[in-house]
Amino acid sequence: MADEETEGFDDLVNMTAGELEKWLATEESKSVGQKDGGGESTGHASGRRIVEILRTRRDDLDDDDRSHMRKVNGYIRRHLAQRPSGDVADSRWRHSLMNWGHDPLKE
Questions:
Q1: Labelling 92: which of 32, 45, 67, 85 has CA 20 to 30 A away?
Q2: What is the C-alpha separation between 59 and 35, in angstroms, rounded?
Q3: Distance from C-alpha of 100 to C-alpha of 45, rounded to nearest angstrom
């Protein structure tokens, strides 16, 4: 049974679990985002959680998963609205979005 947050998540998260996992292993992924105390960035940690959600059957998602999906949807929507001008292919803006499972260059 699809609901608003899972439908939005399915539309906004356009990277597969494998693509996201591969991306999260890169230096570009680790270099962007807000870090609390010098550790892993919020977006990078979120990306790891998104991989778990993508690999979980929809019927097995719990309230914490759905809450994170809503957080992901909000972040991606807000971030897309702040698209910088020019080529974004190698931008911190794109890299940050990719940590949250959305590649703006992917059709």
A1: 67
A2: 33
A3: 9
Q: Tens digit of pLDDT per residue, the chain (107 long)?
A: 457 767 789 999 999 999 999 999 999 999 888 877 768 888 999 999 999 999 999 899 999 999 999 999 999 999 999 999 999 999 999 999 999 999 999 97
Structure tokens at 101: 């499972």
Q: Which amino acid is residue 8, in one-letter code?
A: G
CA distances (Å), origin 33, targets 11, 28, 41, 58, 72: 23, 10, 5, 28, 14
Q: Residue written as tokens 């097995």? A: 60
Helix (H) or strand (E) holding 67: helix 63-80
